[in-house]
Amino acid sequence: MPQTSLRLHQFTESVIRRMTRVANQFGAVNLSQGFPDFDPPPALLQAAARTALAGPHQYALTWGAADFRAALARKQSRCTGLAIDPDAHIVVTCGSTEAMMTAMMTACDPGDRVIVFSPFYENYAADAILSGAEPIYVALRPPDFAFDPRELERAFQQGPKALILCNPSNPSGKVFSREELALIAGLAEAHDCFVITDEVYEHILYPPDRHTYFAALPGMFERTLSCSSLSKTYCITGWRLGYVIASERVVREARKVHDFLTVGAPAPLQAAAVTALDFPDDYYVGLQALYQAKRDLFLGYLDRAGLRYTRPAGAYYVLVDIGEFGWADDVAFAEWLAEHVGVAGVPGSSFFREPVNHLIRFHFAKREETLASAGERLMTLREKVAKR
Ligand SMILES: Cc1ncc(COP(=O)(O)O)c(C=O)c1O
């Protein structure tokens, strides 16, 4: 029989999605894959119900329905301070997942190098392999996840075509400071490199931190491919609506990639989502407060369980330090935890290039009752480890 593509032998199935299956197998509270167990805003659901009857039900324009792009341009122009042209600067994609793949294939040729901060959202390594690019990893060192500017400069000296910036960051919860972003911008300019951002958590960060849109930094719009989505902001991870925003020159090419990858994002859901994109600023204030309350609730349980962790400044994940329990293998620990403590998380090693295996990632985009149930269970962890 013929061999399947060699590219695919370079990475495994997603550990995050596998941990969801492990959670289901053991009936564990699933804090592994980052999706909410509560409903999207009612106004959005009503809009979806209306569109289910009224349509559209056929393909939208391949780079996005006109009303969706217009609403997105209004919202993102307001948030970023940039003048985003719905006809020139936007490609609507199937989630940020496709946006990132489209951006990578638009920016890079096979053999090009791409800077990736480690720890990283696990899709980026696969995106790099699938687009034929070679990652250069730059460490974000726990517990504060700062990078060494000299290490970053050395990475730029290797002539990368692009840098991937996840801000706010999954899994670390890091929010890059303006100074860090300015440093990255300076290096990107000096080495004539694209910056591909993944900003799916642009509205989920905790005061005093504020989101800085990389593309809005002086001179950066032309070299930035900003990827984001509606998944996290409006609690609709299953709708698969995302986008790339970039200069006209770049968008012209990105549309071709997107067209041949997926033809387009779901037409009826784009129509319904216009309602969400037109929400007033209050919505985003409420969203932030909602997640801040969830973060504080869950961290309170971790404190009571005597667990150490890095306090997330953004996104909805926390990395818990399991080093004290003396496990050599975090994957085995995560499986044991799901089976015996009843909480599923993701082994930290799946996010790091370096040999880091003392962290487990939990997410807290869950209802209070779910977080309480997970928290109560985690409070038994110490005792269960001792009895093992
Ligand atoms: C950093 C990051 N990017 C992208 C995604 C996926 O986003 P989407 O649902 O828009 O494809 C996730 C989901 O967890 C994520 O954490």
Report on the architecture of this protein.
This protein has 388 residues and is of the alpha/beta class. 42% of the residues lie in helices and 14% in strands. The strands form three sheets. The chain has a seven-stranded mixed β-sheet with strand order 2-8-7-6-5-3-4, with helices on both faces. A four-stranded antiparallel β-sheet has the order 9-10-13-12. A two-stranded parallel ribbon has the order 1-11. Helix 7 links the parallel strand 5 (162-166) and strand 6. Helix 1 (15-26) runs parallel beside helix 11 (330-341) and helix 2 runs antiparallel to helix 9 (267-277). The protein is globular. The mean pLDDT is 96. It binds pyridoxal-5'-phosphate (PLP). The site of pyridoxal-5'-phosphate has 13 residues, from helix 4.
